[in-house]
Amino acid sequence: MIIDPKYSSYQDCYKLMVGSIVPRPIALVSTVSPSGVRNLAPFSYFTAVASKPPTLCFCPGRRHPGGERKDTLENIEATGEFVVNVVSASMAERMNTTATDYPSDVDEFDVSGLTPIASERVAPPRVKESLINLECKLHKVVHIGEPEAGGGALVIGEIVLFHVVDELYENGRINIEKLDPLGRLSGSDYTTLGARISMKVKPYRPK
């Protein structure tokens, strides 16, 4: 089967993408509006970019049906700061509560029952229940597509401070089992670690 996105709706393209690009890590992003309203929202279009400087990215899409911008993007463009809180399986239900499109004056910390704690180098709070928090300064926003539903933005941020709970950090590495990260699949489906496969890259040796 060959599917040309030129002749497909953005909803169909979305379903193809989220069903193909799996599993995806979840960035639970906390921001603060210029007037001081806290915002918390999950994004699974999320990954690392570089390690010097440590940089990540995530992609807030435009809201359906009118294509309005998400509060997270509005806040980041206005303030230049955000925190990515890594989602463990134990946070799944409360994280899911923040996925609703609430009015801009709603504090998702209050709605979800997640606990805000002060960051050190940025204004947005961290999520206490998250085992890893990444304080970020905005590097760049790249807008993709038209200003309508289906369009979005690539938010690139530099990590200015890592917060990792002590029991997770072992010999310079993250203990993945203890982190127990939650991954996003398609629709309403999520996944946890499951079986792991280890493979080392073999160096090339000319014959």
3D architecture notes:
This protein has helices at 10-20, 71-79, 92-97, 108-112, 176-179, and strands at residues 24-25, 27-32, 38-43, 46-51, 54-58, 81-86, 116-117, 126-127, 132-144, 152-164, 169-170, 173-174, 183-184, 190-191. It is of the alpha+beta class and 207 residues long. It has a single domain (5-191), classed as Pnp Oxidase, Chain A (Roll), CATH 2.30.110. A 7-stranded antiparallel β-sheet has the order 3-2-6-9-10-5-4, covered by helices on one side. A 3-stranded antiparallel β-sheet has the order 1-13-14, with no helix packed on it. Strand 11 and strand 12 (173-174) form a beta hairpin. The relative contact order is 0.20.
